[in-house]
Amino acid sequence: MDAPAQVATSQLKTLPQIGPQKSLLALLFPYFLVAPTLILIFVFTIWPTTQTVIGSLYKPPLTVRQQEQFVGLQNYVDLFDSSRTTRPDISAVFTKILVNTLVFTTSTVLVSVPVAFIFALLLNRKIRYLGIWRFSLFYPALLPLIGAASIWSFIYADTIGLANTVLRSFGLPTVQWLNIQSMSLLSVIIVIIWKQTGYYMIFYLAGLQSIPRDIYEAADLDGANIWQQIRFITLPLLRRTTLFIMVVAFTAGFQMVEQLEALGLGGPNDSSNLLLYYVFQKFSDPRNWGYVNAITVILLLILMLFTVTNFYFFEWRRIREDEH
Amino acid sequence: MNTKSRFSLADVVIITLALIWLIPLIFTLLMSVRPEIEPITNGNIFFGSTLTLNNYAQTWAVAPWPKHYINSVIFVFGTLAVQIVTITMSGYAFARMKFAGRDLLLFLILLQLMIPTGVLIVQNFVTIRRLGLFDTHVALMIPYWGSAFGTLLMRQAFREVPFELEEAARIDGANWLQVMRSVYIPLSIPTYIAFALVSISSHWNEFLWPFIVTRSDDVRPLTVGLSKLLKTTEVGALYGQLMAGTILVIAPLVILFMLFQRRFIESFASSGLK
To answer: Does A40 contact B86 at a Cβ distance shorter than 8 Å?
Structure first.
């Protein structure tokens, strides 16, 4: 198998031109290199996306003998309007779960990103046993969502849970963290803030380390205090980092649902349910697939607001830049 | 320089926060070695009347952990091994070759950064069924074998390798594989390590996809084993066993992180996209 060798060799201008047969191979070699990645991404990303969109336009057959039926955007209409649908159960909860998902993602991002910035500021100094404190703040990011949730299922347990035991020892009333509708989503949000903050912190740490020391020294000489330095030097210089972290955090947030498996299964009464988890709960019955596909498309569209921003501002631009 | 261990106010704040963040892990460990019949109470929050490994023994008995460990290892390293090959190939092509349609093909690959594969569970499940891969190790791994993120990472790394090194190797008669082995791969080891750490940790922790495309314990990884434990312990609220099981699942990665903290943090920082 030395064909690729000769092929690639023809790339070199310094070597003599190789015959027409070999140059055909040379022509094909880059496509051979790209093919595995391209085919796999076609089969597991591009193809399922088109299938999801197409599937969302059909009503699945209800009996074996029926054909699936093209219904246009009816599945989407049904999701938002529960009055005239064949599946009131799905329509009734969809809006609630969509709102849950937006609340869940937005609040976890808007709390954990600023807190991550504070963590990074506090850690980015000379401090004893840095490794221990950094470990303590970052390790939740390395846990599986389901493992983190399993830990918190004990913290949140009604009578013997850690949180309620602590509340009781202070003479405070206990809380039903996962079993009442007004608390369940908040309880899940707390877990994700705990888990994600350390992860976003490391991007800020990297960003902070890229700011030259002498800027702060100059500010010191000018008599700027620590708050002014943060406000007028650190934050502006880390604006790109912050945008990047926000986009990453939103993208991750919309897909973070595995914790629900250990924290109440989206209940009670779907009060903590999230879109992707709902898809996971409903897809095993093929009769739901019209709706399940439509929900997936809606989730994809929301996600693409962030991924396309990220791609345009960070990846593609960088790729174009370093071509020149 | 102040050599005495004096902590400033900022130190105290961050240490307090760090300890708060550590509480869940500490109590997971404590619960796992506490006698199951002694729930934590006001008088005795930390240790029970005695330390015991009984919870671990119980947990070990109710689930086929060795199988789950093996499956997780196969899943993680089987994914990584194929990824290394595919991203090396595509990374080189996009870094060093000119060919018709290159930008279009790169764009198609980068669509994976814009369409998170994780939300396409339903249609990918259908594909796995059609391919006859349901309930196999390959079903776990195959959606991750093509990696846009890895392709970009390797493209970047290979572009930083001086082209003269490749030329010199070519003149010595090296073929493409030899050039890769002697020039590009050795010079890109840090990038491979960064990619490997991110890949390993994200797949070790994955739950939803493995749960969907597998049915038997012969294939299911640790996270799915843990979810089953959750279902069985919920009934009797056997939190000691559950925490022992959780430790079994999270320990390998957490210990690895303790040992190679800097490497992990640098790798994760250099890889915003999973």
So the answer is: yes
Contact B52, B30 (CB under 8 A): no
Q: Choose among A32, A209, A305: nearest CA to B85.
A: A32
* Whether the model pTM is above 0.80: yes
pLDDT in tens, B53-105: 888 888 888 889 999 999 999 999 999 999 999 999 999 999 999 999 999 99
Fold of A88-323: MetI-like fold (1.10.3720)
Tokens 């190790």 correspond to what residue? B137
Distance from CA of B37 to the nearest CA of A (A): 11
Across the interface, which of B11, B115, B249 has its CB nearest the CB of A144?
Answer: B249
Task: Map out the domains of chain B with their CATH numbers.
Answer: 9-59 (no CATH), 67-269 (1.10.3720.10)
Report yes or no: B213 and B139 within 8 Å, Cβ to Cβ: yes
Mean pLDDT value across chain A: 85
Chain B touched by A114 (CB under 8 Å)? no
Chain B, residues 25-64, CB within 8 A of chain A, namely 25, 27-28, 31, 39-42, 45
CATH 1.10.3720.10 in chain A, residues?
88-323
Can you tell me the distance from the alpha carbon of A122 to that of A118, in angstroms, rounded to the nearest whole number? 6
Best residue in B207, B258, B259 for a mutation probing chain A (most A CBs within 10 Å)? B207
- As a whole number of angstroms, the distance between CA A246 and CA A98 comes to 20
